[in-house]
């Protein structure tokens, strides 16, 4: 029985942490979304990025695109490197932040960004309900076993 309480506490902590991460991701998307704009960009060059344990290897393109103010921006795309080199001169969809398009530029469009970053309300509710149930169960168990 001595192993049960730490295991329940650890499980409740993991579920609660997962719920907090889901909520933070949802808040981040709600904050960043109004600052994003998508357009098309032209590949002007690509760089090979060697991989290691935490980063996959591949090609990262440098893109030129026009932002909504009419300024031409040249930026290296962020995100997961491509396994194949994109041809120079090819147009690709670009997602950028309005306030810093030179440093925050991703391949893709707004729908791709939202689908990768959002977490459903159902998942957040389920995680919160599980964490609350486990926490209350732990308190009840401690109350029963307390001398």
Q: Which radius of gyration do the C-alpha atoms yield? A: 22 Å
% residues in beta strands: 25-35%
Tally the helices: what do you get? 3
- What is the CA–CA distance across the termini? 16 Å
- As laid out across the biggest beta sheet, the strand order is 3-2-1-4-5
Strand count: 5
- DSSP helix fraction: 40-55%
User: How confident overall, as mean pLDDT?
Assistant: 78
Unreliable segments (pLDDT under 50, ≥5 consecutive)? Answer: none
Structural class, from secondary structure content? alpha+beta
Largest sheet: number of strands, sense, barrel closure: 5 strands, antiparallel
SSE string, helices as H and strands as E: HEEEEEHH
What is the topology?
Layout: H1 4-32, E1 36-49, E2 58-66, E3 72-76, E4 91-97, E5 105-107, H2 110-117, H3 121-145
Antiparallel strand pairs: 1-2, 1-4, 2-3, 4-5
Helix pairs in contact: 1-3
